[in-house]
Amino acid sequence: MSVANIEPPDHGYSIADVTERQRWRDLVAAVRQRVADEALDDVVLFHGTSERALEKIMVEGMEAIECSHALPPDDRDDDEYGTFWGTIDTAAAYADDTAAERHPDSLPVIIAIPVSTLEWHGSIVADGATVDFPLKGLTRLDDPQVAAYWSDFDATRPWRESLRDLGAVLAIHNNGIHFEDLTVIKSLQDFELVVAEARKAGLRSVADSATPSGF
């Protein structure tokens, strides 16, 4: 699977220092390119937060939050808990938002996890919250055909389609995710560690599944 070409947003607005802001943008661009080069869209997922929030995650893990609002309309009365994930650009955008709006004295942070690890914790489903409140420049919902497809959102929508069209997915799990299962992406080398972990788990992307060799 390949996420469609969407013009990436102007990342790093939450970072005051010009040099640090450019370093952040370069990192996001490098990870985006690495994902595209080897079709790793559905092999590693990303989550955006802030350095202040990361301090709590490092101690307590990533908390599962109530997420029924992101489920199909017919299922929204149920109490479900989980976490939100997506592409590197979606994660970077939410990291900026968290750092700028919630923790203005903090910096943006991106966390990554292998899909195999996330599926061990629970199930990955389409993100209905993004259907209702899409972030500009991060989805394919400007395409009338794509918008029509998601206007009738239900539980049959595969999460890979959600990642492709919306840039986001929802992982449903009752328990939190231990920090040991997460990787903070501060360099391209950090991302390579996540890819290596996915390889160790024997997970290949859908795009590579037809070939006998790994990815």
Task: Please tell me about this protein's structure.
With 215 residues, the chain is of the alpha+beta class. The protein contains 8 helices and 7 strands. The strands form 2 sheets. The protein has a 4-stranded antiparallel β-sheet with strand order 2-3-6-5. Strands 1-4-7 form a 3-stranded antiparallel β-sheet. The longest helix has 21 residues, at 18-38. The chain is globular and about 45 Å long. The two termini are 13 Å apart.
> What is the strand arrangement across the widest sheet?
2-3-6-5
Rg (CA only): 16 Å
Report the biggest beta sheet as strand number plus sense, adding barrel if it closes: 4 strands, antiparallel
- The counted number of beta strands is 7
Strand content: 15-25%
Considering DSSP H and I runs of 4 or more, what fraction of the residues is helical? 40-55%
- The helix/strand series, from N terminus to C terminus, equals HEHEEHEHEHHHEEH
Low-confidence stretches: 203-215
Distance between the termini: 13 Å
Number of helices: 8
Main features:
215 residues; alpha+beta; four-stranded antiparallel β-sheet; 40% helix; disordered C terminus
